[in-house]
Amino acid sequence: MSRPFRFGVALAALSSRDQWRDAVRRAEDLGYDVVHLPDHLATPAPFPALLLAAELTNLRVSPFVLNAGFYRPALLARDAAALDLLTDHRFELGLGAGYVKEEFEAAGLDFPSAGRRVDHLAHTTRHLREHAPQVPIMIAGSGDRVLTLAAQQADIVAFSGTRPNSTSADPLAELVDFVRQRAADRFERLELNLTITALPHDDSGRPKILRTAGFGQRLTDNEILASPTTLQGTVQDMADTLRRYAEDYRITYISVPQLHMEAFARVIAELR
């Protein structure tokens, strides 16, 4: 395993300063390395919330991930550079192409075709590389164009667990091989991320399935249980699965949604 494990948790609930303070401090106490914040209109504005999280803890902070279509590249580069400075370089910029049509419409924005959304993501990434080169960039996605962009431009590649319409018996191997081929000699410098969307919350070993916007809405329970984003069994079993992911696929950056924060902390403790 070429890299040590890192663990992130996506916190999305913010009803008061005290509630946010308690959540981010709890994440730090449980052994997480990075606080993530999704970028949806129903979630807190990422930049102010992440800045406060960095003030309250020693954690790294990252939007996971910004909808690039909501932002102008030059303005985003300015915000990213400011967050990088004000967090003492503990800021990581997660980017995605955006996928929720209703959110674009609610924001008063046109909803471009998938191709145009990826074009804008690519343009935004190039601008950030030129104007905020010190900020680490994560790109998340599963389509060929987004994964190619991530392989060639990002520092961190975030996988969803499988490529669209994949029939591979080993979807993680397929994803990693695709990125390796397109990254060429920069592959060894990439950090690979996977979000775990289902895992046991008790000693039964049966995973608790998350069904909220963006996580598995189009999959059956059986498909979710068969996905590499699901962990099953004992804490030792789950830790062994992640060790195998690290050895076989070089996936060492593991994220979970807030629903699984407490339960997954047992796995973190086993891996440290």
Spell out the key features of this protein.
two-stranded antiparallel ribbon, 10 helices
Q: Which residue ranges are poorly predicted, with pLDDT under 50 across at least 5 consecutive positions?
A: none
Give the helix proportion (percent range): 40-55%
Number of strands: 11
**Rg (C-alpha, Å):** 18 Å
What is the distance, rounded to the nearest whole angstrom, between the alpha carbons of the first and last residues? 14 Å
Described by the principal axes of the CA atoms, the overall outline is: globular
Largest sheet: 9 strands, parallel
Q: Which strand order does the major sheet show?
A: 3-2-1-11-8-7-6-5-4
The SSE string, one letter per element, is EHEHEEHEHHEHEHEEEHHEH
Query: What is the tally of helical segments?
Result: 10
Strand fraction: 15-25%
Q: What is the residue-mean pLDDT, rounded to a whole number?
A: 94
What class would the helix/strand composition place it in? alpha/beta
Structure in words:
The chain has 272 residues and is of the alpha/beta class. It is built from ten helices and eleven strands. The radius of gyration is 18 Å and the shape is globular. The protein has helices at residues 17-29, 46-56, 73-86, 101-106, 114-131, 144-153, 171-183, 221-226, 235-249, 261-271, and strands at residues 6-10, 34-37, 60-63, 66-67, 93-96, 137-140, 156-159, 191-195, 198-200, 207-209, 251-257. The protein has a nine-stranded parallel beta sheet with strand order 3-2-1-11-8-7-6-5-4. The two termini are 14 Å apart.
